[in-house]
Structure formats: structure tokens, C-alpha cells
Amino acid sequence: MRKIIIANWKMNLSITKSLEFVKKVKKTKHMVGIAAPYTFLCEMKKALAHKKIQLAAQDVARFAEGAYTGEVSAKMLKKLNCTYCLVGHSERRVYFAETDENVNEKIKQLLAQGIKPVLCIGEKASERNKKLTKKVLNKQLKKALQGVKNIDKVIIAYEPIWAISTFQKGKQKKSASLDDIMEVHKYIKNVLEKMSKSKGSKIKVLYGGSVKPSNSQEILSLKEVDGALVGGASLKVSSFNAILQSI
Ligand code: 13P
């Protein structure tokens, strides 16, 4: 099955390095996207013009236009050929106080411009320890997708916060177990189907959290996993290529 693999570069690399990276990405049957910092998008648009790699942004304003200093609108991202845009990434929720209500507004802005939102959801370690994972995800999904008409255009990325490499101490970064991923993805798909019978079942659910060449094959071969959102291992083209070629 064709999977969706999106690199999330976060606030890393440089324009020069990003263009080098793009030249070296290997061809694959899978759908590949790169979520680059805003300032790279213009050059990336040109570099990707003849490549089968989709451009993604990492965030968007919750307003359409106007006096919102520092913000970038969905319409501006559309002009830069962004196919996807991440919303509600845990780093935005943790460091920038992003709420489910903000995420909902951002999703609506993106869909109005024909950009596919990649809605990131995930529980904290403390919530997991209290067995609240499903409750947290259910709330995040319901609030972020409230009143969203074309929910089949949304992609979900399940990123348990405790499995994201940069939130972990120590050298050995652990992803969620295959059993955990399977169970949670099934749950998410179930919730989405209940929200909209005809559209919910079409929604792709990606996994993110310490995906790397040594575990990508086993994670991506799970039928419940429609793709991956890759952070740290997407910063080097050799490891990103290794992930693309592992499936
Ligand atoms: P890592 O792959 O570094 O754990 O990051 C995951 C992530 O946050 C992708 O959005």
C-alpha cells in the first residue's frame, strides 16, 4: 500500500542544506512531503517544481488576513504551493499554548484554501500513565474537527508526546510499541468513523515519534498505519532515504 511519509524539519537546517537535501531524496512509490520552516518555502517551491515531493508548512495563522503581526495565512501558503500544513503539533501546544480551539480555526483556514491539514494529536506521559490516552485523543479530535465539513481532507498524525525524540532524555530514543500504535490507531479510526460514517473511514492516520531507519519497516507495515511524520531522522537525507526505502 502507498504510504504518506512527511519530514518535519522543525526549526532546523538552512536554505542551502534544504536544497541539497531535496536533490538527494530517492524516488519511491510512496507519497513524500517535507514540512519546512516558512523562510525556506519559496526556494523549496522552485526546487520541488519537477519533483514528486509535496511541500508542507509547519503552522498557519488562525485568521484569514489582517493586522496579525508575525503570522502567515493559509492563502499565503497556498501561493507557495503547500499541499499540506501541520497543525496542533505538540511543540506548538507545549511551548506556544496552542489550544484545540485554535487548531480548529487553523484547520478551517487551511481547508478553505484547499490545503490538507495534518492534525497532530497525542498524549503526555503523565496522561498515558493515568490510562487517559483514549480520553485525551477523543477530546483533541472532537474539538479540532468541530464543524469541519470536509473531514476526509484532513490527515491525522498520532504523535505520543513521550515518544517524540526531543522530549526524551538519554541517547536511545524509543518509539511507541507496535501494540500501542496498533491499538491507538484503531481507536482513532473508530472515533473518526463515528464522527462521519462516509468520510471518517477515508482519513489517513500517520504515526510520529522516534521513527527511524531501524524501526520504520515494522511500524509502516502495520495496516493501521497509513504513513509517518518523521522529525529527527528526517534531518539527514541518508536516514530519510533509508526510511523511504524500508517499505
Ligand atoms: P521525532 O521523529 O524526532 O521523534 O519527532 C517526531 C515529530 O515531532 C514529528 O512531527
Descriptive notes:
The protein is α/β, with parallel strands linked by helices and 247 residues long. It has one domain (4-246): Aldolase class I (TIM Barrel, Alpha-Beta Barrel). It is 39% helix and 16% strand. The chain contains 11 helices and 8 strands. The chain has helices spanning 15-24, 41-47, 74-79, 90-96, 100-112, 125-129, 133-144, 178-195, 197-200, 216-220, 237-245, and strands at 4-8, 31-35, 53-57, 82-87, 116-121, 155-158, 205-208, 227-230. The protein has an 8-stranded parallel beta barrel with strand order 1-2-3-4-5-6-7-8, surrounded by 4 helices. Helix 7 packs parallel to helix 8. It is globular, with a radius of gyration of 17 Å. The relative contact order is 0.15. The model has no long low-confidence stretch (mean pLDDT 96). 1,3-dihydroxyacetonephosphate (13P) is lined by residues 8, 89, 159, 164-166, 208-211, 229-233.
